[in-house]
Amino acid sequence: MSRSASLSTEVIEFDPGELIVRAGAGIAMVDLADVLAARGQRLRSPSFGTLGGAVSARRNLPIQKPNAAMPNTVLAMAVVDGEGRRFKVGGPTVKNVSGFDLVKLIVGSRGTLVTIEEVTMRTEPIPQCSRWFAGSGHTDLLYEPSAICSVAVDPTRKTPTDEVLVNLEGHPDDVDDQAALLNGFREVPKPTDVELWALAEPAARVVAPDPAVMQVCRRLKSAFDPANRLSPTISVEWGLV
Question: In a 3-state reduction of DSSP, which class is residue 146?
Fold first, then answer.
């Protein structure tokens, strides 16, 4: 699939064989998910908002494997800094990236450094089977579950709980074998993407920033956006200016 790169709300290029998609930052995540699903693929990001917003906010669904986290699935970006300079970061494959990894710097920066115009991401196949379980038993015997997360509030009953939510994916027979190891669990419907994102991104603890780290962050902000044109409110709140 190939479309004009000037359409910032469209899929620009999608190569299912290479598990790579390139799209404008303005495309709705639900539309991007539909395009990928039609070829049996997906991203591990919730299907709301835009692609640029998801990358800027580092929106992940709860996942166990670090290589599936957004900073490791974004391969490249076309961006504009606070001085209006357009440039690209990253490369079409992980092996092509050299020097400073600006992709990981920009992912989750909340628009304080650059405006994202275009994103290239690594996709993954949709598993044949995906089942969700909730309970308070042990999960030590499971082999590479797709997700395990604590649930402070039951998303269906809206009541406090100390349960754990588990997602098992893969071949149906393998999922059945793994499900048999879950004592003290019950099968539940898949939570919504909004609920899963809340579980993946619990309320952050307020901690005193490391002065050395903040010095580096301020230098980066000054290099990318010296006039504080990008996300000025967040930049002030974060102490970047």
Answer: coil
